[in-house]
Specification:
Length: 125
């Protein structure tokens, strides 16, 4: 019954912005560290960002540093990913997932569970 639901994806032009949401249902999100991941066709799932349960720690992949910002509102049981200056290479299905082990230095999907269903982000002119 523990669920994460991603939303906010869509089609955007290069240089545009999107804000993704990861909403928890059936559990208290504040107990968990949350990671954002993305997967393009025929490519390995890539860790994008991670935020600790109190937001004390945030990590980003080098490819998105300076463009993406992760945040959370535990009162709303939601984690966000603000994506600015989007590039075609950002096109992927974006997933969120949970862990109780903290945000790793390298954001590895093997450390996370309770995956959401994903939301499609397409960056194209």
């Amino acid at each position: 019954q523990l669920q994460l639901v991603e939303s906010g994806g869509g089609l955007v032009q290069p240089g545009g912005s999107l804000r993704l949401s990861c909403a928890a249902s059936g559990f208290t999100l504040a107990y968990y560290d949350i990671g954002w991941f993305r997967q393009a066709p025929r490519k390995e799932r890539e860790g994008v960002s991670c935020i600790s349960r109190t937001a004390e720690t945030t990590n980003y992949a080098d490819s998105v540093k300076g463009r993406f910002t992760i945040s959370r509102d535990n009162a709303k049981n939601t984690v966000y990913l603000q994506m600015n200056n989007l590039k075609p290479e950002d096109t992927a299905v974006y997933y969120c997932a949970a862990t109780i082990y903290g945000c790793p230095f390298r954001i590895d999907a093997a450390d996370f569970g309770s995956w959401g269903q994903g939301t499609q982000v397409t960056v194209s002119s």
